[in-house]
Write a structure and sequence with these properties.
Number of helices of chain B: 2
Oligomer: heterodimer
Helix content of chain A: over 70%
Organism (chain B): Cyclopterus lumpus
Helix content of chain B: under 10%
Number of helices of chain A: 13
Order of helices and strands of chain A: HHHHHEHHHHHHHH
Mean pLDDT of chain B: 89
Protein name (chain B): WD repeat containing, antisense to TP73
InterPro entries (chain B): Centrosome-WD_assoc, Quino_amine_DH_bsu, WD40/YVTN_repeat-like_dom_sf, WD40_rpt
Structural class of chain B: mainly beta
Number of strands of chain B: 41
Strand content of chain A: under 5%
Distance between the termini of chain B: 23 Å
Keywords (chain A): Cell adhesion, Cell junction, Coiled coil, Cytoplasm, Cytoskeleton
Number of strands of chain A: 1
Strand content of chain B: over 45%
Distance between the termini of chain A: 158 Å
Structural class of chain A: mainly alpha
GO cellular component, one term (chain B): microtubule organizing center
Radius of gyration of chain B: 23 Å
Mean pLDDT of chain A: 78
């Protein structure tokens, strides 16, 4: 509902009097005021008296009214001192007049308050409307802003389009210029050719005229002293089908031999290239296989395939030169190896760069790690050092400290003890052996003596001597 | 390096015989035959008119002298000086005359390219070939002398006829996919025929000996196309120089482009050596300045030497007139060395520069910047040595070891306009406007080079 219609709807309920007093102010009024204004009307129109005062309670009514009036701040209507039940008419009238005045004043203030309230409510409504209006305007503003950005965007795109179209135009213009230049050069070329042909044509016409006019036609002739032989010395042949066929044959022979040589050359080249490829593949495989033990993420099946391939290729080398399948296999395997090698090199590169980066980026960090390492090593070294020191000390002690003779004598030769023992053992065994030899010698000499005595009867002096000497000189 | 004395010649007609023993020169209407080593005159022949073209037969026994104005061809025998032969083309006229590879037939192209007449010196027989095409290079003989390829034009279409030189039997006749055939050339192994279109369309066609189209190559459309084509001696490469200042190399296996060489105006390549010719003028006698001024440059000893320029190097570029036909732009001269290792090129809008490319590395090896436009360059038939001349009195030689510039020691100045190597690679024939001089290379030419060169 619009504001004006709402207000019209409201004003229908309001009395003319109230409308008069309130029309100067705002349009809208609030409903609760209606009842109040309605209730105030009867005070002015034929109000029926209430049964407040009767003949019996006049005194009470009088005192009540007195109280009421005095509470209102007016002089009392009746004073008890007068003693009569008669009212002071003047005082009563005055009181009544005062009361009426109060009432009027009250009504006025009421009206004023009504007006004020109407005003404030209408203000509130107005503000409410304004806020609604503000919302609506905000929405409109948002919409228009969006519309604006959209338009800006469109404008920008159109600008770009304009630029690109200008570029296109420039290109087209250049193209057109180029084509025009081409046309111009072609035109000049055509013109030149035309002129040349025309000149030739004119010359031809002149010559024709000359020939038509010229009665004496000079015929072609050759005048040779004597025929000379052919360059190759052979006789020239008649042109027959056979010679024609021969010519054809020779022509094809030339072509075929050319193709032959070309094919041979290409085969050779192919073989060379295949050899080179095989070599490259072998080398790549060897390089990659060297890296294999170090690499962790190595796939087993690949190694297997490699070996298979190697076996395959080497066994069927000659076939590989001719079969398409083998050729494809070779190129594929080369590609595979190359990819592996490449990835490996890339990895190395990245590692190297990382390492380099680490080294280059922050000296402080590396020094820290370095120092940490140093400290750790130092810590490790320290107990060893202590150990060595204690050893040294003990040794020194041993060497320097005094001790009893037994121990000293023991100690003095303690290093050689083992060897001494060994030597003693050996001496013993040798002694035993010596004794054994001695005994054997004695036995032998006794045996020799006995033999000698026996031989003395058989007279062999020389042998005896020798034997004796032999046994005597043996140590 | 020794220089012979200067001889007279006319029309730049000086040729060494194919066997390398004799030197034939034309002086007006006389034909002089000398011994190459002694330069003694061996024979002297007189022709009926001024000689327009002269050529040796393949067996070095005969020399043909063509007089185009008179329509005459005279053939002389070296062994028998009394022997004579005269071919009169009559009213039909003569524009070109050449030997056949067997040295016993002469092919005359009549005026207006009406027909090619094949005259046999053995049998006096005549054959005619109709509709030859008037183009840059319409006839080519294979190196082994067995076949001849001839460009023909009938009904506004191009054809190629392959003849067997033995008996002029037409082996193959096929139409080519060209708009306007400009030239054809056999590969050195005689199995492939390269055919190229006029400059209005970039098209190079490769035909097998039996007439099959092997491949067609076109680098780009619309702009002016092929300017020059040459085979490498080992038949492996076909170099195509075009108007866009680039050389494209096709390979003989796939007939596809394997690389292209560009001729930029500023060279940044550190691997290439840039030799720049620097002229130094030293006055002969500095006493009387006025004398010097009046007499002119003859008294100045212009010594030029090569200097190595550090990269980047700027090459002088001359922009051609855009309105003229056959503009002076693009690669017009290409030459492979005899071992196919090097390729020398010249770009017409940088006319004073010769570029040498290495075919193994497919890169630029050397740049020779001269003071004036390069007129002629030719590779030594035996080794990778390039001789070039620029129309002044200096001879320039390049080899992978370095560069030499040698003054031709003649009085009165000898402007070297073109040069030709002897087939042994031991001597060079230098041709001036009307003079001829032989230059004998030392056998130990490396010493020479060390003496004169700027080396890296």
């Amino acid at each position: 509902m619009s504001k004006t219609s709402y207000c019209a709807y409201l004003t229908g309920f309001i009395s003319p009097e109230v409308k008069d007093t309130c029309s100067s102010s705002v349009e809208c009024r609030s409903p609760p005021l209606i009842q109040f204004s309605q209730s105030s009307v009867p005070l002015h129109r034929n109000y029926i008296l209430s049964t407040f005062c009767t003949e019996h309670n006049v005194q009470e009514c009088l005192s009540h009214i007195n109280q009421e009036v005095s509470s209102l701040g007016l002089p009392p209507v009746w004073t008890e001192s007068s003693g009569s039940s008669e009212m002071n008419v003047m005082a009563v009238l005055n009181c009544m007049y005062d009361l009426i005045q109060l009432h009027h004043r009250g009504l006025r203030t009421l009206e004023n308050m009504e007006v004020e309230q109407l005003k404030s409510s209408s203000n509130v409504d107005h503000l409410h409307c304004l806020s609604l209006l503000k919302l609506i305007l905000n929405e409109q503003l948002e919409l228009s802003k969006r519309g604006n950005t959209g338009l800006l965007e469109r404008e920008r795109q159109l600008h770009l389009k304009v630029k690109s179209l200008q570029n296109c135009l420039k290109n087209e213009k250049d193209e057109v210029q180029k084509l025009q230049n081409i046309i111009a050069s072609r035109a000049s070329q055509y013109n030149h050719e035309m002129k040349r042909k025309e000149r030739e044509f004119t010359k031809l016409k002149e010559r024709l005229n000359q020939l038509l006019v010229d009665k004496k036609e000079k015929k072609q002739a050759i005048d040779v002293l004597n025929n000379i032989g052919r360059a190759d010395g052979k006789r020239s042949l008649w042109k027959t089908q056979k010679t024609e066929a021969k010519h054809e044959g020779e022509m094809y022979k030339t072509l075929l031999s050319d193709y032959d040589t070309r094919q041979r050359e290409m085969l050779l080249e192919n073989a060379e290239l295949k050899k080179v490829l095989q070599q490259i593949k072998k080398e790549m495989v060897s390089i990659l296989s060297l890296r294999k033990p170090i690499r962790k993420d190595d796939k087993h099946p690949d190694a297997g395939i490699q070996d298979e391939e190697q076996v395959f290729d080497s066994s069927k080398e000659s076939v590989g030169l001719f079969s398409v399948h083998a050729r494809e296999k070779l190129t594929n395997s080369i590609r595979l190896q190359w990819r592996r090698l490449k990835s490996h090199v890339e990895r190395l590169d990245s590692q190297g760069s990382l390492y380099m980066g680490e080294n280059k980026t922050d000296d402080a960090i590396s020094r820290e790690t370095h120092e940490e390492e140093m400290d750790r090593l130092k810590l490790e070294i320290q107990p060893c050092k202590d150990f060595i020191q204690t050893q040294q000390q003990l040794l020194q002690q041993q060497l320097s400290s005094p001790c009893d003779e037994e121990t000293t004598s023991l100690l003095s030769n303690c290093y050689m003890l083992q060897e001494r023992e060994r030597f003693r053992e050996e001496w013993k065994t040798l002694e035993k052996q010596r004794n054994l030899f001695e005994r054997e010698r004695r036995n032998c000499t006794e045996a020799a003596i006995s033999i000698n005595s026996r031989h003395a009867s058989h007279s062999l002096p020389c042998a005896r001597k020798k034997v004796c000497c032999l046994y005597l000189h043996k140590p | 390096m020794n220089f012979s004395e200067v001889f007279k010649q006319s029309n730049q007609l000086c040729k060494v015989s194919p066997d390398g023993k004799y030197l034939a020169t034309c002086v007006q209407y006389r034909l002089v035959v000398r011994d190459v080593s002694t330069l003694q005159i061996l024979q002297l022949y007189t022709c009926l008119d001024q000689i327009s073209h002269m050529d040796w037969s393949s067996d070095s026994l005969f020399i043909l002298c063509a007089m185009y104005k008179r329509g005459l061809v005279q053939v002389w025998s070296l062994e028998q000086p009394d022997w004579h032969c005269k071919i009169d083309e009559g009213s039909i006229g003569l524009v070109s005359s050449r030997w056949s590879p067997d040295g016993r037939h002469i092919l005359n192209t009549t005026e207006f390219h009406l027909r090619v007449t094949v005259w046999s010196l053995c049998t006096k027989a005549v054959s005619y070939i109709k509709y030859p095409k008037a183009c840059q290079k319409g006839i080519d003989f294979s190196r082994d002398g067995c076949y001849m390829a001839l460009a023909e034009r009938r009904d506004c279409k191009d054809y190629v006829s392959v003849f067997v030189c033995d008996d002029w039997h037409l082996l193959r006749h096929f139409e080519t996919e060209t708009q306007d055939l400009a030239g054809l050339e056999w590969s050195p192994n005689g199995c492939v025929l390269a055919v190229w279109d006029s400059c209005l369309e970039y098209k190079v066609l490769l035909y097998s000996l039996d007439g099959r189209l092997l491949s067609a190559y076109s680098a780009y459309e619309w702009s002016l196309g092929v300017k020059s084509v040459t085979w490498s001696p080992n038949s492996q490469f076909l170099a195509i120089g075009s108007y866009d200042e680039k050389v494209r190399i096709l390979n003989h296996i796939t007939w596809k482009k394997i690389t292209q060489f560009e001729h930029p105006s500023s060279i940044n390549n550190t691997k290439a050596v840039v030799y720049k010719e620097v002229e130094k003028r030293t006055a002969v006698g500095s006493d009387d300045l006025s004398l010097h001024i009046t007499i002119g440059t003859a008294l100045y000893n212009t010594r030029s030497k090569y200097e190595i320029c550090p990269s980047p190097v700027q090459i002088p570029v001359v922009k051609p007139d855009p309105d003229r036909a056959n503009p002076k732009i693009g690669v017009s001269s290409l030459a492979f060395s005899s071992d196919s290792r090097y390729l020398a090129t010249k770009n017409d809008n940088m006319a004073s520069v010769v570029w040498v490319w290495d075919m193994q590395k497919m890169s630029l090896v050397a740049v020779l910047e001269q003071t004036s436009a390069v007129r002629c360059f030719q590779w030594d038939p035996c080794r990778p040595r390039l001789a070039l001349c620029t129309g002044n009195t200096t001879l320039y030689l390049w080899s992978p070891a370095g560069c030499v510039s040698v003054q031709v020691p003649t009085e009165g100045g000898f402007q070297v306009q073109s040069l030709n190597w002897h087939r042994s690679g031991d001597s060079l024939m230098l041709l001036g406007k009307e003079q001829l001089c032989l230059c004998y290379m030392d056998t130990d030419q490396e010493d020479n080079i060390r003496e004169f060169t700027a080396t890296k």
